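[audit] Reproducing an earlier prediction to check determinism. Same input, same settings, fresh worker. If the C-alpha cells differ from the archived copy the diff job will pick it up downstream; this log only records the rerun itself.
[audit] input (271 residues):
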Amino acid sequence: MMFKSNEKIRETVRQGYSQIAQGGSGCCGSSAPDKLAEGIGYLSEDLEFLPEGANMGLSCGNPTAIANLKPGQVVIDLGSGGGFDVFIAAKKVGPKGRAIGTDMTAEMISKARASIPRFTEKTGLSNIEFRLGEIEHLPVADASVDVVISNCVINLSPDKQQVWREIARVLKRGGKACISDLALKKPLPEHVVKSAAALVSCVAGAVTIDETIRMARQAGLKNVQVAEKAYTIDVMADCQDPIYGQVKKCLPEGTKLGDYVVSVDITALKK
C-alpha cells in the first residue's frame, strides 16, 4: 500500500511539473522570475548568461551560493527542472568541472537539454548534462560527486529518507550537500496536505527542521546545519500564480502560508 501511495504522489508531481515545462506557471509564472531570483539571493551576474527560459521561477533559495562552488568540482542538482541552477553551477566550476542535472520529468529534461547550445554559445563551456531519473535513485555512480545541490525539490519526494541516503551514496569523502528547501513551522491543516496544488508547490510535503536533521544524520552525513532564511514563503506566495492561489484558498481564514512554512538552507558533509 505504501508503494502504491508513493507512486501516486510521484505521478501527481510528475504531471504537475510536466505541465509547467510545457508552458504552465511556476512559482511566479513567467511574469517576474528574475525579480524573484534576485529577491531570494541570486546576483545579476548569475542570471545574465542564462539561456532564455531556464529560470522558471521555481526556486525557494540559492543552493549554488551556499555551496561556495570551486573550479573543477563535480556538481549534481536534484530535480533540476529547466536547468536554472545547473547552468549557474557550470559557470562556477568552469571547464575542468562538471554540472549534472537530474529530473524525473521527461519534459523538463528535454527543455533543459534544448538550452545547452545557447549556454555554450554564451559562455564557451560544454560541461553540462541532464539525466532522466528519480532523486530517490540517482543516475550517478557511488562517490562520484563533490557537491549535491537541490532547490525546493526534496519536499516533493514521498521517501525523503531514501533521498538523503542517495545524497550520501553519491558524495565523495569530504563532499558537501547544499540544499534550499521548505520546512514546517507547525502542522498544515489536513485538507491542505491532501491538496494536489499544495503538493506540486512543495508546501504539503514539507517536514520539520528536526526531521530533516534526523534523516540527514541517519543517512551518514555529519555537521548538519539548517538556517532559516530572512524572507518567508510569503514572498513566493504573493506572486500571482494559480498553484499558490489554490493553496491559499485552502488555508483557514486569517492565516497565510508563512504561518506554517519557512524557507531553509541545509548543509551537510560526508566525512
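[audit] rerun output stored. Observation attached for the diff report: Residues 25-30 have pLDDT under 50 and may be disordered.
[audit] end
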